Amino acid sequence: MKHQPGRRGSEKRYQALFNSTFQLVFTLDLQGRLTDVNRTALGLVGCSAEEVIGLPFVETPWWERADLSRQRLAELIAAARGEFVRFDICIRHRTSERCIDFSIKPIFVDDGVDFLLVEGRDITDYEAAARKNIQLKNLYDTLSRINATILHARDEELLLQQICDIAASLEEVRLAWIGFVEPLDNRVRPVAWAGEALAAIQDFSLHPVEACDVGGNALQADSRPMVIDDLGEENVLRPLHDILTERQLRSLAAFPLFRDGEPCGLFVVYASLSCYFRGGRLGLFEELAANTSFALGNLARERKRLAAERALRESETRYRDLVENARSIITRVSPTGEITYFNRYAEEIFGFDREEVLDRPLWETILPEVEECGRNLRSMIEGILHSPDDYQHNVNQNVCRDGRRLWIAWHNRGMRDDQGRLVEILSIGHDITEQRRQAELIERKASEEELRGNLLRLVLEPLTMEKFLKQGLRLILDTPWLGLIQRGGVFLADAAAEQLQLEAEVNLPRRQVEACRTVPFGTCLCGRVAMQMRPFIGENNPDIDLRAGHLGLHGHCVLPLVSGKELVGVLCLYTVPGQESDGQIRRLLESVADIFAVGISRRQAEAALRKQETLLRRLIDTIPLPIFYKDTDLVFQECNDAFAREVIGLPKEQIVGRNMYDIAPLDLARLYEDADRDVLRSGGSQVYQTEVRYADGSRRSVLLHRAVLTRDDGTPFGIVGAILDLSEHERLEEQLRHAQKVEALGTLTGGVAHDFNNFLTAIMGYASILKLKSPPASEQEQIVDQILQTTERASKLTYSLLAYSRRQVSRPMPLDINQVVCGLEKMLRRIIPETIEFATSLCESPLMVLADVSQLEQVLMNLVTNARDAMPSGGPLRIETGMTEVDESFVRQHGFGVPGPYVYLRVVDTGEGMSREVMERIFDPFFTTKQVGKGTGLGLSVSYGIVRQHRGGIVVESEQGGGSVFTVYLPRTERMPGTDDPTVSHLAIGGSELLLVVEDDPAVRQVTRSVLEEVGYRVLTASDGEEGLNVYRQNADRIAMVLTDIIMPRKTGLEMYEEIRRIDSSVRTIFFSGYTFDALEDHGIDQSQLDIIFKPVTPMEMLNRIRELLDA
């Protein structure tokens, strides 16, 4: 207990430290719940500790609007239980967004993880500064260009214009101008200007007061720059508002210019963005203005210095004190090279006392005999001493007492006596060491930009890959300060083969070229760089495995060429041995590699595009629609083969480059021209139906689509057109209309037949009961037999109606069409007169189809009968069978079937034939060309319905006077016919079981009940499925069988059956339906899964089926 105060003090110190840190600090338990949080973290989201402590960390406010999913955070927390985890995210709260660098690490206590420590460091300002640095870099580059201009400036007017040109080239800068103050009216007069809004200079001349007042303010208020963030809000500029708006001038900065410390003018910059001069841009423009002032001062000083030299020659004595105290190095040297004068500034610069140098030769004091670059300075001095007028200006290195070397710019003049003899040489020098260093940097920067610019120009030029690479390589090697040996090569990457291929080289030895034509990834230096995608810059090393061996002393500079994230090649260069590493050179070479990668990618993309264009052209040629493309002069630039062949009738080569007047009749050319001009005027597209004359002379109904092709700026550059032949479409539309008529009549027929079957079922039932109750051989029994016979004939009529509507009861089975023909042949010969020569030509192989044999016999009988009636004068009549394959074009042409194997049954007659009008109506019900009483008009329509129900079709070919060919197509099947087990047992027709009858038609329900009760069954009845289900639930243990209609109101028989099966899965059920198999399919009912008797139902059929199921 005596240690408790110390512990409390330690906890207080810990809490003070925990809450005083600027970082976000959290502690979590091992389940990821927040156990503690410091004030900095709470302040970020504006909540209290009580609101969040105890919550799962992923559900706290810090993650509500963070760009990290809660699931991912939970995964990171789980991972941190065993290792240090770090990640960066952006947290958005209220109106601010902060970038946080998070880390999660486990805290171990007693050899185990006790809790998790989460720390967050706010790096928002760092990220913002990084973005700002990128923006400022571009401004620094501009400043470097201006500094280079200033360094070489000799003419003030040219200098000022170049500064304006460079400033105006900056993004968003619309206008830059420089003006000087007029001494008479103290106004600023522009002397140089540049920019896209150049016309504003003339506009300002119309309003000199307002324009100059803005600039004049920069010459006041302590000579600081003046910045206007929004020119539209400046009162003094209201007269210029329209000009500023029209010229897109939204912000302004004016900087005072000085000459020798005195304000002399203004440097004014207008930008198209408001607040453009915020941040670092203002400082850079200030530096630009300061450098301009420095240049103005230099030019002024240069003029003054020249004047001073002239004055010095007139009176050396008068200005000795001035020379002695000048801030220039001034020396005099005897003709033999000894120093005779050394001013104070020379002492300061070189560190020598004048007593140490006077009367001593130059090369023993301030002049080295040889410069660092190797120039012999002693010989240069001997030249100056011999002929000083030839060395009025020279720049050379000088040496200080401490060994430092300075670059001095010297101005020399020979002093002669009255006899003209050289007695002394006056030299005035300026230390330009720093300027020279800056100039070298500026020159190098200019050289860099020139190199990049030339390489970018090559990227855009239409050069082959090899020429681009070789010319670019020469540009790099010809840059002297890079220190490269005059040889190198460029490899292209083959990612699929994982190797490099030498594409271009300059001055590489033959041995190296042969050895390095292909370099696998990972081998040799270039292959290693390709695999690692990292540059190698360093000295030659015997340990490096080179495929071509070591080729003398040199260094290596091998750079990967990467476009996006894909390696496209490798650039291989060689450096002078012993060259020191230079970061600027490395950065330049890496940027050069990027430009090479862009050029390679561009050419590879262009090659791929050319390949794609070729493929596209071939694809267009394969399109069956005629397609063409013209320019705005209506000259064909491209067309596909269909257009050339079908519409024009000429080879494509004779169409491209010509207009319609060159290749088509005058009337057709005028028609095309009028349509083309019309769509050009509209500027959009046109789709319309018209007639076009094709190359074969036919006029066809077509859908013509023309569209104008436009550039990005909306100006048209051509027309593209496509022609769709509607002839086949219109024919198919006519077929569809005909089919829809037939389908509508078929639907009506099917509905009538359904109701008729119910009536017949009731009549047959009552008549059968009546017959059972009639005395044998009585008149009553004869009357009942007549009723039954009449209902049988009525049922056959119903069958014919259903056959036409394709809704008859069909029991398909595998059968051979050849056997159907053979089975009917004797019957057919009996109905064909002797004047007709009947023959069959059957396929030798079995022709298996899935069909109802009786329906197929009916089709064959109808077709042969129809052919017989068309041949009153006799002639050949032939039946053929065979196999064929149906393709897409056949399906499109005839409107039935799917591509695949089919069999055909063909009836060929040599009769009178048919006209086109008759052929279009032959399958219409009740249509006939026979005399009254000779035909019903249902034969062919019934045959058509049967064939279509079997998923086939009938194709008719005929000419008037040339006979007819009817071909039936049916899908071929691989199934073979099976054998049926004959029923051997005789079924009783009566019983005593309890049966449930569910039927919505009252007459059918009542007659069914009567028939069943007549033979001893007990019967319960219901009028729909809902009532039937209730009756079954009440008598489930007593009911032996359910007899039900299928389609009923409220609840169908099938729905009732499904619910009954939940009560008793073994229930026996017989379904009755006045609808047929096709109609049941329309209701989603599968016949194969049910025991169905189709109406009309005879009592014997029903009783036999009931007894069969009950006794099974």
TrEMBL record:
Coiled coil: none
Catalytic activity: ATP + protein L-histidine = ADP + protein N-phospho-L-histidine
InterPro entries membership: CheY-like_superfamily, GAF, GAF-like_dom_sf, HATPase_C_sf, HATPase_dom, His_kinase_dom, HisK_dim/P_dom, HisK_dim/P_sf
Stretches assigned to the Response regulatory domain: 994-1110
Protein name, per record: histidine kinase
Domain PAC per the UniProt entry, residue ranges: 389-444, 686-738
Family matches, as SUPFAM superfamilies: ATPase domain of HSP90 chaperone/DNA topoisomerase II/histidine kinase, CheY-like, GAF domain-like, Homodimeric domain of signal transducing histidine kinase, PYP-like sensor domain (PAS domain)
Domain Histidine kinase: residue ranges: 751-974
4-aspartylphosphate modifications at: 1045
Domain of life according to the entry: Bacteria
Bilayer-spanning residue ranges: none
ATP-binding is among the record's keywords: yes
GO molecular function, one term: phosphorelay sensor kinase activity
